[in-house]
Amino acid sequence: MTESASIQWVRHLAVQTLVAAMLIPCLISTPASAQLSYEREPIEYSTTASNDPVARLLTRLSVEKQSLSNDEKYGYLSALLRELDVPVNSQTLVFSKTSLQRHLISPSNARAIYFNDETYIAWVPGGEVIEIASTDPMLGTVFYTIAQGPTNTTGKLVRHNDRCLFCHGSTDTGRVPGLIMQSVYTNADGDRVFPSRSIPTDPRGPLSGRWAGWYVTGTHGSQSHLGNLMLSSGDEVQPAETLTTGNITDLSPWLDVSKYMIPDSDLIALMVLQHQVSMHNRLTEINHKTRLYQSEVKAVHNANDNPLSRPPDDRESDEDAFVFSQLAERLMDGLLMVDEPLLSDQISGTSSFTESFQTRGPADPQGRSLRQFDLRTRLFKYRCSYLIYSDSFDAIPDPVRTRALTRLRTILSEDSPEPKYSSMSKEERTSILQILDATKPEFRL
After folding, report:
1. Phi, psi dihedrals of residue 376, rounded to the nearest 5°
2. Does residue 284 contact residue 9 with C-beta atoms inside 8 Å?
3. Per-residue pLDDT tens for 180-200?
4. Mean pLDDT in the chain?
5. How many CB atoms lie within 10 A of CB 367?
6. DSSP code of 315?
């Protein structure tokens, strides 16, 4: 075998190994091994300075020599919501003991979560810290805390890596620094219980398997969910359709709602949160896999000083095209919500979230937006994720992002798309195409 042929064979073997690693779940992965991918070049998560909204806030406060304001009831929460432009009406309440301050969380002292398109803020009444997860386009989710309480008045935001990544960089997040939204059966104290009819968590699943361990306010007709449910010791979970914990609009029987900024844990906010958590993790996964693949291929090219071992003009190989196409397809499935369950009845929330969320995104000349809700047959009127406008989407390397946009235009333009997109009518697909043409300049190219 000649030198150039040998190098090509090594490159081919390395590419095939990477393809397998990307497309086949590793059944023996551990948290330690899972961390290796995002701590390696070119990601280097823990040692790379972040460019997320919280990092930018920290820079601005430093330049302006200012600090966050602190109030007696909410501590730094009000200031953080204001400075990071996170709406109060996005509040959802979780009472399962499944986070850093589990010793303080219970059905009578639920953890409040607020979010916008990039940032998530978690606050517990009487809590020692406020927890923040903020999205960096290249790194993924970055984690911070700010100390609360009468003796902690410095207002210092601290970035965390290892402790948070033990859970937030595991198989639960696709082995990237990401977000977790669990559905967990609990007892009346908020402790996790394991009934014999436990339903696995699946963010793509129907309402009937969602939100155990969460408060849910809103109406949903004959549909059911697991929110507001607390079990006694030894209980078996009854079929969700027989539960009486749904269609709740007032949480005051369970907790003192005056402790919170609003009295709601809005059903529509919860559904948007679930979509967004899943989509943010997917965007990070695709970004990291693409960049890691490119880095490995470059390393193989540079393994020998002989320039003949490198493809002319850095053209894609067949293996490159295959990997990039597979990643673009996974991105497409997320954008077009192919696994989203349909609704069988009208749903509505109890806060002003539904109205305000729809005003936050770009609209076409006809006033149509990817943030518009349907709420009768599905969550969104136009099933293309509004996170297509995010910095995280734009940061996906060109070989995958451009393929995804080309593929998206093809799907939206076809008269008869392939089966997994067939639930979208021609009218809906045409509307999405027109909205993107008007609001996403890159899409028109």
Report:
1. -115, -45
2. no
3. 998 889 999 999 987 765 555
4. 87
5. 7
6. -
